[in-house]
Amino acid sequence: MEPFNFLRDVTAFNPNNLEMLLRLLAALVAGTIVGFERTYRGRPAGFRTHALVCMTSCLLMLVTVFQSQWVLEKSDYLIRLDPTRMAQGIMTGIGFLGAGVIMKEGPTVRGLTTAASIWITAAIGILAGIGFYFPLVVSVALTILVLSILRVIENLLPSEAYYNFDVRGERNNEFTEQIVRDLLKSCGFRIAHTSYRLDDKGCERRFSMVLRTSRRTGSACLSGKLEQIDAVHAFRITPISE
Fold first, then answer.
1. Radius of gyration of the chain from its Cα atoms, rounded to whole angstroms
2. Are 84 and 67 in contact (CB under 8 A)?
3. What is the distance between the alpha carbons of residues 155 and 104, in angstroms, rounded to a whole number?
4. Which residues lie across from 198 on neighbouring strands?
């Protein structure tokens, strides 16, 4: 490829450009569909993370499938060197960088989408290095779309939120497991897991649960009702999210 041909490669008609565009869009749609299911279930790696990862994999395969467009054809030793190995080494190193931005704060996992954005940025850098300008421009536009516009859509989509719920109180008839369950049900929560424990020499009950709900105001409803129960000593409602 000739150097400094950015505008020509982006604007000129090329059947391969249309094929690359369709493949990138297919990867975006596929990753979004799978990510929607994970978002609905309230999992840390959701809508946008799956879309970015799927697009990154597609970009790296485009580098290999359309290798003839950026590798010089007249040189036999270039074929033996296999320049795609350099891309493999880059993505392996970026994997360690991405892992560094993923943090676990108690039950909450944060940074997965940031790690995915770092990964796809590395793939875009590879496209720039080999002069693959058309998929570079398309991938940048789709990445901005995923990180900005799809974030708004993600917040509007119906989804289940998961919470870690811990409450303790006096061991009396005002604070029993059935009362806690009825309270959770009235606020729209369903119990995924639960454990029961007696503390303070059997004088205090403690319930630890994993809750799920599709109501965005469920936690506020629950905390308000718990504050009105004198038998409750302390409680904590922690969202499990990215």
1. 25
2. yes
3. 22
4. 205
Residue ranges of domains in the chain? 6-156, 161-240
Quick one: pLDDT at residue 166? 92
For the segment 189-200, what is each residue's pLDDT rounded down to a tens digit?
A: 988 888 888 877
Report yes or no: 126 and 9 within 8 Å, Cβ to Cβ. no
Tell if the pTM clears 0.90, that is, is over it. Answer: no
- 20 CB neighbour count, 10 Å cutoff: 22
- Is the pLDDT reported for residue 84 higher than 70? no
Report the percentage of the chain scoring pLDDT > 90.
7
Q: Give the tokens for residue 40.
A: 């609905």
C-alpha span between 188 and 119 (Å, rounded): 38
**CA–CA dist 50, 33 (Å, integer):** 9
- The CATH-assigned architecture of domain 161-240 is 2-Layer Sandwich (3.30)
H/E run at residue 165? strand 161-170
Tokens of 50: 């799956």
